[in-house]
Structure formats: structure tokens, C-alpha cells
Amino acid sequence: MLPPWLLPAWQAVRARGARLPHALLLTGPAGSGKRLFGERLAQALLCTQPDAQGFACGQCKDCNWIAGGNHPDHFLLVPAADEAAEEEAEEGGKKEKTRSTQIVIDQVRQLQSALEVGAGGHAGGRRVVLIDPAEAMNVAAANALLKSLEEPGENTVFILASDAPRKLLATIRSRCQVIEFMPPPEAQAQAWLQAQDVADDALLGFAGGLPLAAKTLATPVWLGLRRKLAEDLAQLGQRDPLRLAAEWEARLKAKDALEAGFAMPTLIDWVQRWLADGARVASGATPRFYADFAAALQAQTRIPLLAWLESLRELDTHRRSASHPLNPRLFLEDLFLSMFRRLRAH
């Protein structure tokens, strides 16, 4: 099943039946449910005994193949680094050499070779290709995929999921039917989170109103990292920025953080949310992302709005290199020093 706010889109797609477009582009922010929607749709399209709502039965031969990751007509295109991570997990954590964070042309060519075999699925049914995130395709890979979208094979459905659809080639976007996933109403989101035993009300605001993202954060590791960052930023004026950088470098390298997927881009994103809330409070509004730290933010009202905005602009420079800093320690030192100078001055 799917969360209730995704059901209208599901019903609209499944009502199309055999008239389903050959390519769907699922868009929306990370945590909006588009990947979950795409996975469920891929399973349903290959299932031979879907239920009354169009969901996969979970019991037929095709469903068992999908669950085992070896369905001959189910194709998943993800960055090479993600493929390597899955392989390492299966092999007990053995590390391989660094892989690309892009979807590269060789992956697309391998997909096309597989799709060229036969005129349809293994039993004459559909073939389904799920690409996530679609914006991870480099230019060569995107151009290669475009040919498949322009001349789709018989009974082949492409499902592309993207946090940043504007990064896709316009020609790819134009060949897909777009389904946009937005945050659900707050009351519905909070009710769903309570049903999932997520008791921290502030997480929904921190996750930008996205309950699936909020649920992901409701673990001891994520909650602890968020709380510690908020405490450190609230005391930034009294902390040594260089020592703070060393502490956060260590946290980024900690085993539990690595296993949870906590990385430099996430840290930068969380710092941006703190600065945005600081700007909101300075302008007389209430914090959105760190509502549970409203008192700490209110205590910084001596910092003018301009200082918060300038810090946000400087953070954009760090964001551009957050995925691959040449020296993480120096990167963090520069980050915290620039914030310290901007905000401590007041």
C-alpha cells in the first residue's frame, strides 16, 4: 500500500490501464514519496494478479522474482556508487574503489542491449525501467536514453524519478508525462506520523512538511545529530570554530552516521535550515525547521536580518562543493569560521 496522500495519483495512473504513457516523470522534493510510488507502480505493472486497487499481489511468480531482485523485465538504473553500496552490503561491507555518483552511458547502453532482446517481456508482458534519480544521468547517458524514449520498445514503460527535473534535458522532459508530488496537508501528515509511532512533532517542519522524510529522521542517530547541530549553532558565538569543525568531521566519519547516510551535503542542508530560521525570527516570524529550538533562536534576536541573509549567501558557495570537498576538515573550518565572523560580530 501507499500513504493516503499518494493514493489519488495512484488511482489516476492505474485507471489508465493499457493506455499508460510509455514514460512517466515523477517529480517532487526528496522524501515526497515519488521513489516509493515508482517502485510500487513497477511491481504492479509486472504482477500477474494485481488486487482491486491495482497493487501488486506480492505472491505470484513475478512478485517473488521482483522481491528477489531477479525479475527479467524489471530494470533499475541508479548511480554506479549506489550499485556499489548495495554490492558491498551483500558482501559484508567489503569496500570497493570509489564509484561514480552519476548514471553513466555504459549503464544506459547495457539497459538498451537488454531491452533489444525479444519483442516484449518474458511472457509477452511489460518491461519496466525505473531510473532514480534521473538527474544523475550525465549528458552522454541522457542523450543515449533519449533514443529509447523516442523509439520505445513494445510494452516498455520508463519511470523516471527526479528531485530536480530542470536539470534534465528538455527533450527528455517533453517525452514524459509528469506527475508532481507535493507535501500533504499538515493535519493528514501529522496523523500519519502518529500512526507510524513518530512522536516528535517538530520533525515534520524540519522535513519541509514531508512525512516520509520525517519518518526517516525519527531514529536515534538522526535525532541525535540534529539535536547536537542545533545546540552547537545556538552556541556558535561561544565556541571555537576550528574545534567545532574537527568535531563535525569526526561525526561525519562515525560508523553509525555513515550507515545512516549522513554526509556533508546533508550537514550543509541542515545548517541552511538553521540560518533560514534565524532570518525568519529576525524578521518577526516563527521558526519553521527548528521549531523545538525556538527559544534558542529567539535568544539570538540581537543578530540583524542582514547578517543571517549574508550567511545564507555565503553558504551557497559551500553547497556547490559539499559533495566532493578536497579537504573535509578545511571545508568545515571555512564554513564555521565564516558563520562565526558574520554572526558573532553582532
Properties at a glance:
346 residues, Rossmann fold, Zinc Finger, Delta Prime, domain 3, 2 domains
Can you put this structure into words, describing what you see?
With about 350 residues, this protein is of the alpha/beta class. The chain folds into two domains: about 5-180, Rossmann fold (3-Layer(aba) Sandwich), CATH 3.40.50.300; about 220-345, Up-down Bundle (Zinc Finger, Delta Prime, domain 3), CATH 1.20.272. About 55% of the residues lie in helices and about 5% in strands. The protein is built from 17 helices and five strands. A five-stranded parallel beta sheet has the order 2-3-4-1-5, with helices on both faces. Helix 6 links the parallel strand 3 and strand 4. Helix 5 (about 105-115) packs parallel to helix 6, helix 8 (about 185-195) packs parallel to helix 10 (about 210-215) and helix 12 (about 240-255) crosses helix 17 (about 330-345). The protein is elongated and about 70 Å long. The N and C termini lie far apart (about 50 Å). Residues about 95-100 have low confidence and may be disordered.
Task: Provide a compact summary of the structure.
By secondary structure, the protein is α/β, with parallel strands linked by helices. 53% of the residues lie in helices and 7% in strands.
